[in-house]
Each structure stands twice: as structure tokens, then as C-alpha cells.
Amino acid sequence: MRPTGAAPQRPAAPDDRATRHRGRSESAPGGSLAGVLGGDDAGAELRVLDLRLLLPALLAWGVLVTLLPRSMGLVGAAATLGLVGAVVLLRVAHVSPAAGWTRVLAMSCAAVGLVTGATALHVATSDAGLVTGWAEQRATSQVELVVTTEPRVLARGDERQPLVVLEARVTRAQARGQVTTPRTPVVLFASAGQGWEDVRWRSIVATTGRWAPAEPGDRTRAVLTPRGGPSVLAEPTAVLRGVDVVRDRFRVALQPLPTDSRGLVPGLVIGDTSLTPADLTEAMRVTGMTHLSAVSGSNVSLVCGAVAVLLARVGTPRRWRTPLVLLSLVGFVLLCRPEPSVLRAGVMGSVGLLALTTGRRRASLPALGAAVIGLLCLDPWLARSYGFALSTLATLGLVLWARPWGRAMARHLPARLHLLAMATAIPLSAQVICAPVIVLLQGHITTHAVLANLLAAPLVAPTTVLGVLAACLAPLSVPLSTAVAWLAALPAWVIGRVARVCAQLPYGTIDWLDGPAGAWLLTALTVLVLVTGPWWWHQARRRPWWAGAALAAVTAWLWPSSALSEWPPPGWVVVGCDVGQGDAFVVSTAPARALVVDTGPDPPAVGRCLRDLGVRDVDLLVLTHFHADHVGGLAGVLGQAHVDAAYVSPVTEPADVAERTLARLAGEGVSVHVARAGDVAQVGGATVEVVGPGLRPAAGGSAANNGSVVLDVVVEGTRVLLTGDLEPEGMRPVRQWVHGRDYDVLKVAHHGSAAQDERLIRGARAEVALIGVGADNTFGHPAPSLLTLLQSNGAVVLRTDLHGDIAVARDDAGRLVVHRRRSG
């Protein structure tokens, strides 16, 4: 009998922890996707990951990417269908046996409707008023603007003033007897020297300028070219002026620091990369470290984490810690400017911090999904931003894999190295999931990225935290701020050294398919490796000799030697180096020797090109003119090869660049000759004849461009015409020279500018046209009209922005053969 009122007795339940333990130990290696993705000890946790909000967020993001550049009518239709579908599916969920999946579909429809509806609202607000109509008519207008981004100064690569670019929002405009007060976002392009580079963020300015339509799908709805400088109507608020004081005094405090540290510290702290040397920027790009040189989610996590640790150490009550951390987050975002990229970094950094500090990945995934939906509603154009994609994927990688991979590695390390395991897992998880997007951007796989990021990772935290402290001290005392900045300078300098050294390591990249096909292929291979990885590891431990042979075979396939990759190709005659927006061409004169024409803007890029070609001696270096995009890489040539002599243009403009260039050549002991039409030189197996410039400078156009040294080179039976940056005025004398001559290769003038002489191009009758041009340049090079002209003339057109390094060679039968290689 049981006593009255006693609770009924139930069989004892087995211990849950023991059950879970037995389930893991009895499963086969790699037996479940959860175990593969999260490590053997995380399978149970991943099986209960809450994807109900993340999946709708990703679907809404994909729909917005597809629809954004298209008609806003489609966006509005998607919003309507999404919201209606959500309502219908929620009603169906009440009676559906698969209610769970039905609710997920309903949430997906709701997410699509929400983000597309927000997009339609943004566009409707932006297009309200008369500005977009005036832009189509290219009207001139008096405008009042609120500046919404920091001005960016872009070099044009010639003697013209640099270009200032900033975004703003129109608050009032007047044209053609009409006045409008819209909220239209616009982009402004102005020449430096008019005062636009000095305007403050969030200030209100007035100007007069001409409107032009923006690109379809852009955030901005019109382009404004002002006719003069700005008139400041209102300064930013007191808080923002105070932030400007902090930023300005912080820059002053950084002046005594070494060059690399002076560029990296403000990049990590306030998102200012203007002081970063160009060669360091390239090294960080090559090694996959560019996310360190600007404000990212990891920086936000570090700052907030440091504040949280400090509050805990000083004994701040727990209820005050979260508000104070959020306050520090707001202050950091203000210091970096709350532009879209910084807001995105702040949100994603907060999600990543939640995942890493609490370990509650079940809660982190819904937070990430909510962050994606919220950011896309606030700024729909983030959907097509590579930065947003990389930030979101990196955060997803941290949420899914950083902790389980860190724990898995820590099991095989001593206790004192457990922190190293987590430090390795963080960049590894981010790199693995971001690799397909990086391939979409670069066209190759960066093999050194994990190593470089692993070496730099322990140095990011002290650089960022000490840099923020230095910035906070700057308004109080610049000397004190400088003292703290020196503490941040040392780890920053080491980060720079890591980037530079890793960029020089061999086999830094693996060529891959370009475009979406390459990205999807890498995605499929990544998933395959993650799913089957534990099984392969189990087999490798059972058959180590087979595993070693397979590893050697894969290594030989992925990292071929230069001989196996046939670069440089046999019989190469002339190579156009991929150096960005600039020119660098190499003509073979003998084994390991060459004629080099121009150096491009970037020393590492031209140095890499010469190194890969095996050039150790430059018989003749020709600097066609003194613009930075043709002589800026001089140090790369001098550092890679011995230069015997140099030909330079007689037009020494810009004067400061010419002076520095000539001084560098003199300092290296290079014999310099001012080239004139009629000069002839025998350079190894090549005959070099100077076609221009003549004694009389061309009237009109750019003096420096029309003073370009023009060469007629004959080597191995191949005739090459190299035209520098000639403009139509300088081409007229040259076209008389080429009359009656057949050229095999034409180096197209001025990066494919529309300003060409048609009679010169048709008279050259070149079989191959080479264009040195940078991807996504702001000049519209190469011009469609020129490409049409070249193709109609029967030339095969090759461009460094699309094809990378380009080599023209002769095969065994004496025929011209073209080889292309994506540079890395």
C-alpha cells in the first residue's frame, strides 16, 4: 500500500549525460553531419541549432540580391507576395501535420516581404522630389546637402587634381524655376583643391553643380558635379564635433610612429586607412588580411570584450555592465563614423561576441538571422556588398565552428596551449566559410591566409585596445596619447611584417575558376570536405602510408612548380604585367634579361611579375612619362633586378614625381638618357627605336601624356609598338611613322581611353592589342568605343583587369600564341 497523498513512484530515468556520452562513443567516425560540422563533442548541440530565423534571413538576402538592380515594380511585387504568403502559411500551420516546416516557410515569406518592402520604401523616399528627373535631363541646380560619408581623395594617375568623392543627402534643390525639398541620396565628384576634401561628416553645405543619372541599382539616385567649392551652412552637432576633435588629435599623436604602424593603428581603431602605404595594402590583400586594416566585427568584439573585462575587474555591479558595454559600443561606432560598413561591423561583432563569450550557439544563430534582416531593412544595398557577405559569413563561421574546433584542437595540446587552439580556430573557421566569396573577388585561392591571420591574430587585440585607449587620451594630452600609441605600434608593426613576409612566400595562391562558377565549385568542395573529413581522418590513421602518398599527390597538383605551370611560357616575347591601373610591360632580350617599359603604380606587383618571369637583369628600363601609374613601382624593379640603363621622357611633369624618380635612379647608379625620336639601341636580341616624342611638344591635351616615350621594338621576328599614354594630339606624328609597317603587338595608349587616333590604330594593323588597366577603375577604361575599333580592325584584345598577366609568344611553327595567367 501506498500512503495517502504520497507521490506515485516512477522508474528511475537514465542519466542524460551518460546517455549522450554513450551515443557519441557508439557512433562511427563522421557518422553525422552535426558531428562533422562541430566536432565529435558538439554533435548533440548542433542537432538542436535553431535555424528557424537564419534560413529565412538567408533566403530574403538571396531574393534581394536578385531583385535589387531590377525594376522596383518587381521589388514591390515580391514584398506583397511575401507578406500574403506569410499570412496564408501561418493559417495553414494550424492544421498542417508538418506545422514546424510550414512555420519556417511562413517566416521565410515574411522575411522576404519585410526586406523587399523596406527596399521599396527606401527607393520611394529617395526618388521623391525632382532631383532624379533633373539628373536624367542633366540640369544645373543650386543644392543644399547633408554630408553622409567622409570625403575620399582618389588619385587620377596624371597631372590633373585628385578626385574627391563623397556621398550626401539632398535637403533642398532649386533648378528651372522649381524648388524641391527631398531626401535623395546622391554621390558627388569634385576636383581636389576646392575645399570638398575638408568638409565635415554630417555638416550641411550648399553648392551649384550639374546633375547626371546614377548607375541602375545604386544606393545613390543621382551624381552631382559641383562647379565650385562648398559653402558650409551648418556644422555638425556638438557631439560629432567632439568626435572630430578626438580623431584629429589622434592623428597628430600618431605622427612619430613608424610608417607601417602609423597606417595600421588608425585603420584598426577609427577605420582610417589613408595613411597605410600602398605596398602594405597590397601585401595584406595578397595574404587575406585586409579585414584587419579597417574596422570589422572582430574589432568591435575586441573593444566591447575589453570593456566588459575591465568592468568585471573593477567590481562594477553586474546589472550595470551590459548598459556600459553598449554605451562603449555606441562611442566606438561614433568614433569610426556610423556609416553602413561600420554599423554592419558593429552588429556582426556583437553577434560574434555573443557566440564566443556565452557559448550559446542556439541563441547566436537567431541573433545572426535577426541582424541580417534588420541590416537589410535599414540599408538594402548591403545585400550586394562583398563586405557585408564576408562579415556575415565570418560571423556564421565563428558561431558554428570556432568553439568546437578550438575544443577539438585543445584535446591534443597541453593545457598551457589551449588558448592557442582557440586563436587558431577563429581565423580558420572564418577563412573556410569566406573562401568562396574571396574566390569570387580575386579569382584564386589564397593559401597563406590562415597562416598569416593565425600569426597576426594575437597581435590584433593589443593593437586595437591600446589604440582605442590612445584615441581616448588624445583630447586630454597628445604626448600621453603618443606614449600609449607607441605601445600599440609594436604589435601593429609586427602585423605589417607578417603581411609583407607571407606575401613573398612561394605558392601563395592557387589559380581557380573565375566568377560564380568558381565560387560554387569551391563551396561544394568545402562542404564535401567538412562532411567526409572525419571519415578520411579515420582512414588516414589506419593507413598512414596511403595517406602520405595521397597528400603528396594533392600537394603536387595544387601547388605546381613554375616549370609545370609553364609560366613563363616557352618562347615568350612580350608580357603585360597585371599591376592594377597602370602600365608595366616586359620584352625578352635574352635568358633572364629583359627590356622593361614602365613599372606600374605598385612595387610588389611589378616585382612579382619580373620574379615569375625569371628576370634578373634589366638591360634597359624605359619610363615613358612621370605619372605615378607608370613610375610608382620603380622600387619593385630595382629591388628585383639589376638595371643597366634607363630612358626617360623629356617632359618632367609632375615635377615632384620626376624629381624623386630621377633621384632614385641616380642613387642606384643607373645611367639615365632623355629619349628623343630617332634614338636607336640594340638591347640583347631586341632592336629598340624611339618613335617619339619629337623636339616640338604636341599642342593641346596633357603635356606629360603627349610627352610619352613611344617605342618600335623588333625581337625574335615580332614587331611591337608601345605608345605610353599618348593622346590624340601626340598620336598624329606617330601615325606617319607606322604607315606601311605591320605590327604584331600594339600596346594600347592610355589604358584604353576613348581619346585615341583611329588612323594610328588602323595603320598599325596589329594582330594583338594589349591594354594595361585596373579592375573597377573610376575612369571607364577601356572605353567601349575603343574596344569596338580594335575588334573591327581584326585585333585580339587582351586586358590585364580581366586576364591577369598576358604573354605573347612564338610557338615552334613561328605563330603568335597568347597565354594568360591570373596574377596573385
Task: Describe what you observe in this structure.
There is one protein chain. Helix 8 runs antiparallel to helix 9, helix 10 crosses helix 18 and helix 16 packs antiparallel against helix 19. The chain has four domains: 74 residues, no CATH class; 106 residues, OB fold (Dihydrolipoamide Acetyltransferase, E2P); 275 residues, no CATH class; 244 residues, Metallo-beta-lactamase, Chain A (4-Layer Sandwich). Helices cover 51% and strands 17% of the residues. The N terminus is likely disordered. The chain has 824 residues and is α/β, with parallel strands linked by helices. The strands form four sheets. Strands 11, 12, 13, 14, 15, 16, 17, 25 and 26 form a nine-stranded mixed β-sheet that branches. The protein is globular, with a radius of gyration of 30 Å. It comes from Ornithinimicrobium pratense. Pfam families: Competence, Lactamase_B. This is DNA internalization-related competence protein ComEC/Rec2. InterPro entries: ComA-like_MBL, ComEC_N, Competence_ComEC/Rec2, Competence_DNA_uptake, Metallo-B-lactamas, RibonucZ/Hydroxyglut_hydro. It is found in: Cell membrane.
